[in-house]
Amino acid sequence: MYIIIVGAGNVGYGLALELYGNTDYEVLLVERQRQRALLLREELGELVVEGDGTEVTFLERIGARRADLVIAVTGDDAHNLVACQVARHYFGIGRTIARVNNPRNERLFQLLGIEATVSAAAAVLAQIEVDLPEQALIPLVKLRASGLEVVDLHVQEEAAAAGVALRDLELPERTTISLVISGEGANVPDGDTVLRPGDEIIAIIDQQAEPQMRALVSAPLPPGAEPREPAP
What we know:
Blueprint: E1 2-6, H1 10-20, E2 26-31, H2 34-44, E3 48-50, H3 56-61, E4 69-72, H4 77-89, E5 95-100, H5 106-111, E6 116-119, H6 120-130, E7 137-143, E8 148-154, E9 176-182, E10 185-187, E11 200-206, H7 210-217
């Protein structure tokens, strides 16, 4: 697999080193700042090349037509977006991944067809949510092409799902419960698996089904309390 990484900052540099250690990958790290490229080339040799990952002529020269994946991880969202757009629409590269530095831009990337984005802010927020036991549903990975996502659910005390077998739950369409983690360990469930308070569930659900799944595993609200809308 031929992988082009656009941006040789700390993220791109670290990613290139990790991928380069796998013999199944041919990796090329692209850096447009001359001094940075020269510095890294002294360390990494031909793994690094100086150039602009948004320019068609340059990408043609480094063999973008045979690339399997382009990863754009510069500190500039516009640069990452254009690099992925050129890779997809000019060179027909099937997979692109873009770093999103400003979370407000993530929706724009999705609308323009960049199916995989990585946001440092979202990653930190997800880790904070994992560490908060009151969180009933934590999104893990969005599978944008299918409209599905992988979520981490926590069954709370007195939740509708607590004490109920999976076969008796009214689950949304396109829901797959992949794993149930309890005090006894992790198990692949079947219809007879009974959920208990404190159980953790890894599931694949429709992205629109988040509110319904959250309601199933959440503790009932106190009388008079208004449900809090989850952050977008």
